[in-house]
Every structure is written in structure tokens, then in C-alpha cells.
């Protein structure tokens, strides 16, 4: 969803090729030649083959910088700030958010029991990250500054899941984080991709 939303933000045409994860299609050739870890997504752009969603979105944002929404900052100092917050998302936020998404969203859908001790541990870790976000967003509309960038964009998939769980209270209780969430989740590109997911 992260990659599809990026393509939509950049107003780029693409061909979406579904991979049947239930039958293990991603764990055998020819898919393994695209991603040796056997995971989606994969992007093919001419002779370039990429995997890992954040790497793909960075490639799209740089290569097609003049198309659609400018997701990267051109000014070196602004770019540095964007890089800082992309790292925060990947190294601090995602660690807790992905664990909570697994426990509260994915496991129940697979008929597995949620581990309440893990939820409690990672809820506390996420709260610490969101406290930092609250301070940051009190002084700027978006994480990297006044413009929506990949630093914000990369949060969308887990945000979407977590706001449908009891963890929503962590976001709602922080006024600036709550406003930021509402803003980025309302983006037309994200809404379009989310609707595509529901129609599959």
C-alpha cells in the first residue's frame, strides 16, 4: 500500500501485478529472483528491480521529483531534516507500530491469540515516540517542516491499522499528533489505495 500510494501521489501510471501470498507464490521462482526474501512489494522500472517499500518510495520520489506531489525537499538543510524524521519513523516508530499491528490486527485475523504482555510493552514504547512527535508537531505542520514529505508518508500503513484498535487512544490524546494523523490519512492518494485494498 505504501508503494501504490507513492505512485498515486506522483501521478504515475503503473501496472499492478498481484502475488498470491496464501499459496506461497512469493516464496518460489520467479518471484525470488525479484526479492530473495520472498516478500512484497517489488517494483520493476525498466531494467531496475527494487524491493523494500521505503527504498522504492525514495527511488520514486527522487526519479520522478517533478511529477505530482513533491515528497522530497530540494534544499539541503530541509532534506537533512527530512532524512532525520525518515530515520525516526523507520528505527523508532515502526519498531513499536509494526509489533502492535501484528498483535492487534494481523494475529486476530489469522485466528491467533494476542499476547497482552507484548502489547503492553510496545504500547509504552510507542507512547514515548509519540511524545517526541507531539513536541515536534507543536512547532511544524509535518515532521520535516511545513510540507508533506516521505517522513510523514511512510507512517500511513501502520497508522491506518492502529487507529482501528485500542491504540488509537495514544494518538487521540496528543492534540498535534491527532491533527497530523487526520491530515495525512485524508490524502486522496492514500484514500484511493485504501479503497483498492477493500475491493480486492
Please describe the biggest sheet, giving its number of strands, its sense, and whether it closes into a barrel: 2 strands, antiparallel
Which regions are unreliable across 5 or more consecutive residues at pLDDT < 50? none
Number of helices: 9
Strand content: under 5%
Mean pLDDT: 95
Structural class: mainly alpha
Give the spatial strand order of the biggest sheet.
Answer: 1-2
Order of helices and strands: HEEHHHHHHHH
The helix content is 55-70%
Task: State the end-to-end distance.
Answer: 12 Å
* Rg over CA atoms: 17 Å
Number of strands: 2
Outline: globular
Can you give keywords for this protein?
two-stranded antiparallel ribbon, 9 helices, 200 residues, mainly alpha, glutathione transferase, globular, 4% strand
Q: Could you characterize the architecture of this molecule?
A:
It comes from Abeliophyllum distichum. One of its GO terms (biological process) is toxin catabolic process. Keywords: Transferase. It catalyses: RX + glutathione = an S-substituted glutathione + a halide anion + H(+). The chain is mainly alpha-helical and 200 residues long. The protein is 56% helix and 4% strand. It is built from nine helices and two strands. A hairpin with a 2-residue loop joins β1 and β2 (48-51).
